[in-house]
Amino acid sequence: MLRFKFIHRLAFKQARSVLLISLVLGMISTGWQIYNDFDLEKHHLQLTVSQITQLHKESAARAVYNLDDAQAEEITSTLISNPFIYHAAIIDDFGDKLAERIRQPVAKTWLASLGNHLFQINSHIEEPLSINPSDQDDARLVIDLDTAHIANNYVRRAMTSLSVGLISSLILATIFLLLIYRYLSQPILDIAHWVNQLRQSESCPPLPYDKPDELGELATGFARLWEERKDKTDQLNDTIERLSKSEHLSRSLMDNAGDAMFLCLPDGSIVRANHQAADSLKCNEAAFTGRSLAEFSNNYSTESLQILFTTIEEKQVSTIEDIQISTQGDTFPIEARCIRMCLDDNDYILILARDISVRKEAEKQIYELAFFDTLTGLANRRLFIDRLKTAMKFHQDNQRYGAVLYLDLDRFKTINDSLGHSIGDAILCEVAKRLIQILPENATCARFGGDEFVALLPDTGSSAELCAETAANCALQILAELVVPFEVDNHQLFCSTSIGIAVFPDKHNSAAETLRHADTALYRVKTLGRNSFQFFDPEMQSSAQERLEVEKGLHQALNNHEFELWFQPQVNSADQILGAEVLLRWRHPDKGIILPGCFIHIAEESGQIVEIGNWVLLQALQQLAAWREQGLPESFKRLAINISPLQFMQVDFVDRVLEMLDQTGIPGLQIELEITENMLLNNFEIASNKMKLLKQRGISFAIDDFGTGYSSLRYLHYLPLDILKIDRSFVTGLRPSSELAAIVEVIIATADRLNLTVIAEGVETLNERSALMELGCNCFQGYLFSKPLDAKQFYQKLCASVESQLSELNNS
Asked: Domain EAL: where (predicted)?
């Protein structure tokens, strides 16, 4: 209906436009005709008036000349008989009216007024009369025109022309409208009605217009388009119906699937999830939309999930495992299958997630049954041997050492037989707990059956000796812990253990042989009386036992004041004592004096060297302060104190040294700290900064045993060093022409160029001293001059040396 109204309104506009155009064109045409008629009428009127005046002008001139009143009257009467002249007069040359005639002019109407306005002609005419050529033309013929009459005639004709033009235009417009309606509007109305019928019918009605013109082509094209659209619509409806059924089926399958399903975009945001996903994650299905799947994942962030999705190819299934987190914080393991799919030209990732909690629990139980002891929860024989093989392979490749401890409980069979298996099982579980608490985190503890336990200590040192020491320490802790009574069901039970130890790797030993060696060592302990440990290698046993005794003794040495400071003089070429090196001695209550070479390395490996080094430093400063009070000769320059690398790298070392200097009142110029090359090479920047801080207090630095380490000339230039000490290995048996002399010469020349003092250690013969002096070395230390002395003996020797030199000077 709206289309018909639109068509009718279009026809009305069309008719109105045609009518207006026709009227406008008719008005223009009629106006042009009226304008032409007006122009002709005006010209005709002027011509007529001119002819009349010319016609009567000569007669009027004679009448004036003859003063013929009758003729003048006749002329004026003739003039006013003309309908457009209402007044005529003849005036003689004296200005008198010879004749005059007047009639009543036509009454003025609005048409006459309109005509007068349009015409605007000269209605008063005075034509001069020539009487005598010599005279002036004072005589004249006067005529007044009836403009109302003239205007009425003209306007009447104009109105007639206008009316005829309008009527003609209306007739022509009507004819045009009929033709347009017949050949254009009516076919359009029919086509509109036909189009409206198409909306209500299943089939296409007959064409309302089939002539071979534009409208016919329009109707034919529209009919063809409608048929094609109907076919497409039918196909689309069929497709929609099939998709609806398919979508309903897919949705039913998705919602009734046993696995959680998520349809995600490649960026990880969830588009749709099924009922199972909502139940598993305790979330409403609608709440999933737009959220990232990473919010429910423990192992994947948003970025890692996007990276994973980019690696999935279309139609290729990718399987992952994850821990999902519900909205209530519950977690459970899942196995997810990810598939890339394309829907409506968009990429999606379909994820099928299955809860594998039951499977994981079963796998855990199977793993524990296969690799762990069901009673104690420790590893079983199978897992232990597997880890031992792995450790042995690693240690062989990296030249590291480990140990196996084979344990057997003493008197366990007696307890188990007398009190029952339940008590025995409780003791075994308690033993397992104590072993786990004692052993380091990287160790593996296993129960081989009965009362046999085995411990694997991997990566316990870079040498067999250090490994043996660590294993022995661990064994002692186990022995100490297991002698503590067990409280089981109101029974206080005592159960010690025997431990056999085997160190690996050995190129000729397998994992089974290593275990057999530890077992052999265990039976040796049983034979010797139990509640102890033994190494498979007797030499290693002795060495480990000795190291343990030394380490244990070092703990007591400081508390029992068993350490002493000894001093070895440092002299110049004139045998003057320039200083002394502080040497540590351990006065053992049973073994007597023990030299540093027997215990310093153990103290460094156990970390006790820091405490011992701080004691040495403080005692040396206090002894120097005591000597200063007693009086020191001017020739005595400094006291040399060895500093351990571990002690030097302590964070508070600089502050501690400065505090000791302030406490004892010793100037830094009298202190020399001896450090090793390896410490400088491994910690160059840190060592440099600390040395510069101590150098500000006047403390000097010496490189001990120069040339025996991985020497580098770089630190000699950049570090604030003062002294080089040539190691005794270059001094022993030194001769001027030997190869050692060439090396010593290079060292001395280097030191001279760097303005460093050189001291040779271990000088024991006059030949060595002479060779050194010949090479340019003038400072010495060694048995040739003095053995290490205690504080009292050194001070006496120092004073005696000064007195001897004074006596020589007096005698000279």
From this structure: 547-802
